[in-house]
Design goal:
mainly beta, elongated, seven-stranded mixed beta sheet
């Protein structure tokens, strides 16, 4: 599991060429399934716009870089209609408000956690309303809607926060594999 802030800025590395071909600039989220669908990359031809990599073409995300097979894994964003449509939805989790199902302000999202094997959002860090520090992590099972303006969660989410999403992630049908890197 990786926090989005651990992924953003990573070098994008081509295994075939053995070199850096860009840097991660943005994670494109699908609100329907709560997952990262594309990764936007700024390459050395930055003047021609961002490139996109479908998440399924990512070989791995380590502390040193994000790996892809080759430069051909990158495509112009404008050549990927689904990526353009998702970008228009403008789903950005850090900083958005967290509302309960009944419309109560719970807080804001500090960061979100991604399962680097499946691209699913495993949870979101909650900064409580009026607070400055993270209170804990909202497990994915409590998130009802990934919206442009706010994240909708189950009532009583504050009492079900976890300190480490890894614990609940392992309990969610991922079995023993979930905790391994």
């Amino acid at each position: 599991l990786k926090k989005s802030q651990q992924i953003l800025g990573l070098p994008v590395l081509s295994i075939e060429e053995g070199k850096q071909i860009g840097a991660v600039k943005h994670l494109v989220l699908s609100p329907e399934n709560g997952a990262v669908k594309y990764i936007l990359v700024e390459d050395d031809a930055w003047y021609s716009g961002f490139k996109a990599v479908p998440f399924e073409k990512v070989l791995g995300i380590g502390e040193f870089g994000l790996t892809v097979e080759s430069r051909s894994s990158l495509s112009a964003v404008t050549d990927m209609p689904e990526a353009v449509e998702l970008l228009k939805k403008d789903i950005r989790l850090p900083g958005i408000r967290v509302l309960s199902k009944k419309g109560r302000l719970v807080g804001t999202v500090g960061d979100f956690i991604v399962d680097e094997r499946t691209a699913e959002i495993a949870g979101c860090q909650l900064i409580p309303a009026g607070g400055e520090k993270t209170a804990g992590v909202i497990p994915r099972k409590l998130i009802l809607t990934f919206g442009r303006d706010f994240l909708v969660v189950e009532e009583g989410t504050e009492s079900m926060l976890v300190s480490d999403v890894q614990e609940t992630f392992q309990d969610n049908a991922y079995g023993e594999e979930a905790g391994r890197d």
